[in-house]
Amino acid sequence: MSNARRAAYPNEDCLFTVRPMRASDARAATGVWYRAWCDTYVHPEGATRQWVDEIWKPRLSDEGIARLAQDAASGERGSYIVADGGGGEIIGVAITQVGDAGDQYLQALYIDAAFRYRGVGSALARAAMAGLDPDRPVDLDVARLNRGAQRFYRRLGFQAVPGSEALWRGVLPVVTMRRPAGWRQQRTTGARQNCSATLHCSEESTRRTVFCTGGES
User: Is the pTM of this model over 0.90?
Assistant: First the structure.
């Protein structure tokens, strides 16, 4: 659903590329997604490692990898975007989905731990949502314990929906956040709205609470 263009970001240190997911990226992207779940949701306020592994067993199977590859290749109902750290090393993944009624979701946004707080998440989120209709709202679900993620999404225009607290699959406390229709972020450069971009990221601390996201199914 995205029209990808490339743009360079002047910065320091490490280089990564935000681009549409290829079928060959599916296994690595799934690994990023799974590790981020373990980092984030295995927590006294969240879930057990056993519960996470039960959820992920079918996703980590060859059939689950093939399904993600097929969905990314078709791109019929959303955008599948990755951050490539070079040489095909996938360091982040973002997925948006559009429902039958046109409802829009930021379904997933996950970054490998070593690359958080370097601008990768912001670049992925903007690229993934560039394919959505700006005149319709965008929803996501975020773990209630993940306060760093909630702050991150507020910077992208999302606000918690009152009364939306729920237990995802009866276990993980989540809250729905929504970016309203017509929301526009002030552009610092025109390139930041592109779906595919090559970026440099500077060294930053990774000591803070992880942020990754929303709307898992």
Answer: no
Q: What is the pLDDT of residues 126-166, one digit of tens each?
A: 999 998 999 999 999 999 999 999 999 999 999 999 999 99
H helix count then E strand count, the chain: 5, 9
- How far apart CA 81 and CA 125 sit, in angstroms, is 9
Task: Please choose, from the candidates 117, 125, 90, the residue with its C-alpha nearest in 3D space to the C-alpha of residue 16.
Answer: 90
Which of 78, 67, 86, 68 minimizes the C-alpha distance to 17?
Answer: 86
**Assigned token pair, 84:** 């490539």
Query: Residue with structure tokens 């992207």?
Result: 29
DSSP 182: T
Query: If you average pLDDT over residues 166-181, what whole number do you get?
Result: 96
Mean pLDDT of the chain: 82
Instruction: Name the phi and psi angles at 166, rounded to 5.
Output: -155, 170
Contact predicate 83/126, CB 8 Å: no
The terminus-to-terminus CA distance of the chain in angstroms comes to: 20
- Alpha-carbon span 156 to 109, nearest angstrom: 13
How many other C-beta atoms are found inside a 10 Å radius of the C-beta of residue 14?
17
- Two tokens, residue 121: 């998440």
Mean pLDDT of 160-175: 96
Partners of 18 in the beta sheet?
83, 197
